[in-house]
Structure formats: structure tokens, C-alpha cells
Amino acid sequence: MKTYLVGGAVRDKLLGLPVKDRDWVVVGASVDDMLAQNFKQVGKDFPVFLHPETGEEYALARTERKVGPGHRGFDFDSSTEVTLEEDLIRRDLSINAIAETESGELIDPYGGREDIGKRILRHTSDAFVEDPLRVLRVARFAARFHHMGFEVAPETKLLMTQVVEAGELGTLTSERVWNELELALTYQAPSEFVRVLRECGALAVILPEVDKLFGVPQPEKYHPEIDTGEHTLLCLEQARKLTDDPAIMYATLVHDVGKGLTPPDKWPSHYGHEKSGLRLLEDLEQRLPVPKEFAALARLVCEHHTKLHRVQELKPKTALGLIESLDAIRRPERLEKFLTACEADARGRTGLESRDYPQQDYLRAIHKAILAIDNSEVLKAADASERGNPKTLIQKARLQAVSETIEGLRSE
Ligand code: ATP
Ligand code: MG
């Protein structure tokens, strides 16, 4: 029996990246051999074990045979005869199909090292098309390694298109799809995830609301890049510079989906896209298990982002309404997330990437003035006749504070 380090650990070491978790493959061992060595079996579909001390994953080398549709439509053979090469060829990408022996020797039958050198994401074999999850994984690796110069090989793009055209993406569970999307939103270049998926047709299946934005024009005066899809990608790039928070990235990704509903005879204006986008977000949340916090923030950004862009023109009542809609009095951290997504939207425009965005501090000042109000003081100061209606009293005090703050800001 022989044990090899495989997958991401070998790849990341060759890339000079820190190694997070290590995956191992075991050749020439049976389930009983592993159990006899106190490994704990965990795999349901095929034998995977946890090391009794390190807890790291050890999988028996296996081959797979396509027997049904989708990511799980495989029969596995993990007998002791399966070779390392046979196990490596079933892996998605050449850069993920390199093994390392205990003495540090690399076994690389499918050109993984060469592709690492050339910065290419290339499928290991034509069996790539058998598992639709690989389409999302490749897009995710493109997002993860874009900053290092990696690109998807043209022949791999062809296979990805083939998988999409065969309708195989529809067999993935919504949890899988969301999981891949959320991971992609944590990487350096989430915009690459969207680009790669769009190119192979997968975006139209997974995120049709975003796919529809490509080809939709916006007024050049505010959007020199014109195309709404391109604007969305630029926004993701700007958002990445501002935050690591995947909820903000998600909100940025979907902030303009309403523009996909504008009838073409109304282009390039998009009157009412903020509200109409909410309907599409609902569809999206029906389809994918978007976490509550992500969904809530995305709805707020979708509905209110244009209000922040013109916050200096808002009447006190509208400005107060914005703060209340954001629930910012109870949840200041949500205000900050909203502000960040709006900043990404303002900067995700060609030539405007480093513009000032004083709207943030403007709304923060209003927010601060509202927070400074002492409700019990307000009630105490009121006439006895007014005290029966504390809500109205506090509302009046807030409006007063917002008005004064705005006056102060305008005279600055
Ligand atoms: P990470 O650093 O994110 O863990 P990884 O490449 O190790 O990256 P894992 O999801 O841990 O990714 O999978 C381990 C290895 O298993 C991969 O490197 C790849 O060789 C193989 N693999 C995982 N999922 C698939 C799949 N759907 N199809 C083919 N091979 C896969
Ligand atoms: Mg791994």
C-alpha cells in the first residue's frame, strides 16, 4: 500500500501558496486494510477515511464509470488494483492531478506542472464532460487564480459549453450551485467566475438575471462602459478592493438586475429598475439557498442604491426614510455594508474608478445625528398632551435632527 499527497495541496505548493487542507490518495489498500490501521470511514459513495491522528482525508484510489446523469451519476471501483494514474485521470484539471510521494517526488502523468508554468486551467481527459459540477469548479478556479495569470484552455471551454448544451447543469442541486457561487465571491476575481460562466452559456442557466444584463445599454453620461453586464463586472472588481465580505459581493453582483426588465424601447434609461429588481431577487432566492443576511442586504442595495448616489439632493424626510429602510438605527453594521456596495457601484464605471464618493460620509453624518437622539429626553421635554404618542414625538425629533444636519452639511 502506498500513500500520495494529491489535489490542491500539491498544486498550491507548486504555486508558492500556503496549503490549507491536505488530501491523500491510497493505492493498493482495501477498506479492511484502512480500518485495521484505525482510519475512520466517512465516504458514502466511495471509500474515504479520516486519519486517526491528523484527521486529514485519505481516499482509496478509484476509477469512475458514468451510469446516470449529473454530478452523482457514477459507479466507482476502488479495488486494490486501481493505479495512481487511473485515479489521477478522473480529476477535473491537470493542475489538480499531480501526486507527491512520501519522499517528495512528483508524479504528473497529465502535464499539470507544465500547465502551472503556462498558467492554464486544462481538463485532464474528455471524461471531464461527465460531471457538470466541473463547469462551476473551473469557473471558480479561474476566479481564484486570475491574479496569477491563469486562464481556461480553449479546448476546456469547448467541453464546458458541451456540458451546458446537454442540459447537465440542471442536475446540480441548488446547494451545490450556491456553494460554488459563494466560494467564488470570496476569491480575488469573482468577476472571472461570471465571465467564464457566461462564455460557456452556464450563466444563463445559473444566474439568468445577471446574464440578461449583457447587451443592455445604460446612459453613457453616467456609465461610460454603457453595457450593464460589463458594469456589473467592473462593480465586482471595485467591491473586491473594498471588502472581503461575500454578502457585499453578492449584493454588488445583483444590484442592477432590474435593468434586465426594462423594455428595449425605453433604453438606455431604466426608470424604476430598483423596485423591479426586487422581483427578480425573489425568483433567485426561490431557486438558490441564498443566506438570509445576503438576501436582505442585496434587496436593500437593489432598492436604494440610486438614493444614496443622490443623497445630497434628498429631502430630510426621504433621507430619514432611507436610514429607516436600512434598519440602520438598530443595525449600524448593515449601513456600512450598504455604503460599501454603493461605493462599488459608483466606481464600477470606466474612467471613474477612483472618483470621490462623499455620499457615504453625508449619510453617515445623518445617521450619527439620529443615533445621538436620546429618546427619553425627547419624551421628557414634550408637553403632557403630546406624551401619549411617543412614536410621533421621536419621529419629529429625528426629522428635526436630520434637517439640521443637512443644513449644516449644505453650508459647509
Ligand atoms: P481546495 O484548495 O479548494 O481544497 P482542491 O483542488 O483540493 O482545492 P477539493 O474540492 O478539495 O479541491 O478536491 C480535491 C481534489 O479532488 C481536486 O484537486 C481534484 O483533483 C479532485 N476533484 C474534486 N472535485 C472534483 C470533481 N467534481 N471532478 C473531478 N475531480 C474533482
Ligand atoms: Mg482540497
Q: How would you explain this protein's 3D organization?
A:
The protein has 412 residues and is of the alpha+beta class. Among the domains are: 1-110, Beta Polymerase, domain 2, CATH 3.30.460.10; 243-412, no CATH class. 50% of the residues lie in helices and 8% in strands. The protein contains 19 helices and eleven strands. Helix 5 packs parallel to helix 7 (174-184), helix 12 (246-254) crosses helix 16 and helix 15 crosses helix 19. It is elongated. The N and C termini lie far apart (76 Å). Adenosine-5'-triphosphate binds at residues 7-8, 20-21, 23, 91-92, 96-97, 131, 133-134, 137. Magnesium ion binds at residues 7-8, 21, 23.
The strands making up the biggest β-sheet line up spatially as 3-4-5-2-1-8-9
Unique ligands: adenosine-5'-triphosphate, magnesium ion
* Low-confidence runs of at least 5 consecutive residues: none
What distance separates the N and C termini?
A: 76 Å
Helices and strands, in N-to-C order? EHEHEEEEEHEEHEHEHHHHHHHHHHHHHH
Mean pLDDT: 97
Strand fraction equals 5-15%
Structure summary, number of beta strands: 11
How many alpha or pi helices?
19
Task: Compute the CA-based radius of gyration.
Answer: 27 Å
State the helicity in percent bands. 40-55%
| Form type | elongated
Structural class: alpha+beta
Largest sheet composition: 7 strands, mixed
